[in-house]
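User: Hi! Is it possible to get a structure for several chains at once, not just one? Here's what I have:
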Amino acid sequence: MSLEKKDEHDHKAWLEERDLTAVESIFLTSLIWLDRRFRIVDYLEALETMYYRVNLQMPKSHTEQYNLDNKFWYWYPLYSLGFLSIVAYLVAAVTGAILGFYYAPSTGGDPSAAYNSMLFIMEDLQFGFMLRSIHRWSAQFMLAAVFLHMLRVYFTGAYKEPRELNWLLGVVLISLTLLFGYTGYLLPWKQLSFWAGQIGVEMALATPLVGEWAAQLIFGGFTLGESTLIRMYILHVFVLPFVVTALIALHVGIVWVQGIAEPH
Amino acid sequence: MTGNESTSENRTDEQLRTDGGPPATVPPDDETPTWRERKERTQGLSRLTYEYFERARREDQDLRQESDYVERDVLAFPTWPHEIIRNLAITSFFIGIMILVSAVAPPHFGDPADPASTPAIILPDWYLYWSFGLLHLDPINPELAILGDEKIMGDEMYGVLANGVVVGAIALVPFLNKGSARRPVEQPFWAAVGVGGVVFSITLGVLAIQNLVPLDLNVIFDLTFLLPVIAGIITYAVLKTMREGYMYDLNRRYYRLRPPK
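Assistant: Yes, the chains can be modeled jointly so their relative placement is included. Here is the combined structure:
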């Protein structure tokens, strides 16, 4: 018995045991020669698979089976709005981080350090006007996308049975997004910012029991001032980014686990 | 030969069967040869090629099994490049539009904050107009006779409460509307509620910017509540009509089977 490993794939022996004609043996020899060098088996196999795949009778898709393609094509463009809001959120995060280098959250100075820093960003800083413009517009895009996203989910019934929790999470997220926009609206400390803040304080004070406490907590007092601006700044750049990012991750994670609810 | 033998065997089997035969999962066409048969019954060089390829395949398989070669199962499309490139395309399109808009329409920058002078127009950003509009609902804040026509609560608290009611109603939707219907046609009522809500948020926004709208305040206030109802009714009527047509396809067979009166 030989120690040498037995060659189970001995093509030569296989060729000899077959009773081949001259044409056959020439063909097979050249085929083996080519295959050894260029692995044509793989390519032919791929071709073969492609052939059978093309000629395969596929089972009807869900859409074809229920004749749905004329029913939901018009929803389809609205299926990327959640993604658009995330993209806009990321753009706002990047531009906001850069704006944070130049912004000063203070009401001191004439008329105020916050307003002056905005003037500096828009008039003196290279690319500053564009930076602020992008930050603001991406926020507008995010809000619009979030509203339309909610409408799409409502009208396609995507909040139904296994997805109630994600709808609630979405309500929380849209509220936080509005708060995000509101705090950002107050930061430039211009007339509209100030009086929008005034509305907020009055709303808080109008609430019974917790109203004064809420006004103290969120606006830092019953009249607007330095503490209001600092609280809005901290909310806008420190609290909300972490909370909203975490909730968005959870929101998307649940969609990942449950799958996208297609209309059917 | 072998084919004939096997069919005759099957026939005797079927004759001997008393259990009604195998389950009725018959392949679509008995005469369609399988992939393997298609290859095996070919003759000549193509058959030779097939036999060699079978051996070569077997060889590869053996090689894989005896070495420490690890073959991954493909569970999905690879993230790179398929998904990443598609998402980058969409992302760059969106970001491009955002940059274009911010270059074309830069934001307005107003006067600095002045607590001493109240401006003629006080406004939040547009996405809070609906909420600001709810603060203007004081004309319908109920008055009580027992309090001597005094209001139960302050107008501002009434507005804050309205905000809470709206957000609460939205949050309750999945717990009120059950079932598997997914299209507006399938449930015209809920679609009408949705359209009414959208129109209500718009009319509330108009109410919030009332001093910019060239209409009498009372008219604006009435329209704020009338238009959503009208829009809801129209939506309901349209979808109900559409559903009749949509249900016709489903019911046609039923109508055909019914004897004529």
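Strands of chain B lie at 143-144, 150-151. Chain B touches chain A through 68 residues (CB under 8 Å).

User: Great, thank you!
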